[in-house]
Amino acid sequence: MTNKREPILQPVPILSLKPTQLTVGMREVKEKRKRWREHKAKKRAELLGSHMIPVVMGPGHKHYVIDHHHLSRALHEEGVKNILVTVVADLTMVDPAVFWNVMEARRWVYPYDSKGVRQNYRKLPKTVDQLKDDPFRSLAGELRRIGGFAKDITPFSEFVWADFLRNRLSRRTVEADFDKALEKALTLAKSQDAIYLPGWCGPAAAD
Q1: In 3D, which of 48, 57, 54 has the Cα closest to residue 81?
Q2: What residues make up the domain containing 97?
Q3: Is 126 a member of any domain?
Q4: Which string of b and e fits 112-141 if b means at least 16 CB within 10 Å?
Q5: Is pTM beyond 0.85 here?
Q6: Does residue 180 sit within a domain?
Q7: Nearest CA to 92 among 54, 58, 55, 56?
Q8: Could you tell me if residue 207 is inside a domain?
């Protein structure tokens, strides 16, 4: 097993990548698609060369995506067929019966649905185009972008924030008026209720 990231120089078909989560924020995917379309062909080629997808090589030499699910989905929807990957760990020798146990122990899988309910690993999508939308993941992503919380190395930190917001805002509010939901989310993010969350940067300390 190796923890050294080793780029695979041969492109890998995007639809051969195996997701390790059930959902993405489709609003974030659409934003990535928009930015992609703004680039000319040369810049797109540079981006594909520099934005390699981190994967774990699993049983059967399948590539399990452990980050950049949104980018992978966006590129697929923009018609990109192949992408470079970088291997974070080689688990090809692991018995398939315990593979997901190892993945969970390393915090490389997040088997929760768009309601925040844990699902069996069999429910994980087979391809990135099967990832479902979670509006609260979009809300959490935008909340981080505007400074509601800091980028953190904690795996799946945006999903942790998504679940925090899910328990305090209705899905109808998020879908009907995203800007209003974001305003409420920012207030919640600065509250003491969120102090335990990764990247919390709370209100400014009083003089």
Answers
A1: 48
A2: 6-133
A3: yes
A4: bebeeeeeeeeebbebbeebeebbbbbbbb
A5: yes
A6: yes
A7: 58
A8: no
What is d(CA 2, CA 6) in angstroms, rounded to the nearest whole number?
9
pLDDT in tens, the chain (207 residues): 545 555 556 789 999 999 999 999 999 999 999 999 999 988 988 888 888 899 999 999 999 999 999 999 999 999 999 999 999 999 999 999 999 999 999 999 999 999 999 999 999 999 999 999 999 999 999 999 999 999 988 889 999 999 999 999 999 999 999 999 999 999 999 999 999 999 999 875 544
Tell me if 112 sits within 8 A of 103, measured CB to CB. Answer: no
Q: Give the chain's length.
A: 207
Measure the CA angle with vertex 137, ends 134 and 143; round to 5°.
Answer: 145
Total domains in the chain come to 2
Measured between alpha carbons, how far is 42 from 132 in angstroms, rounded to an integer? 31
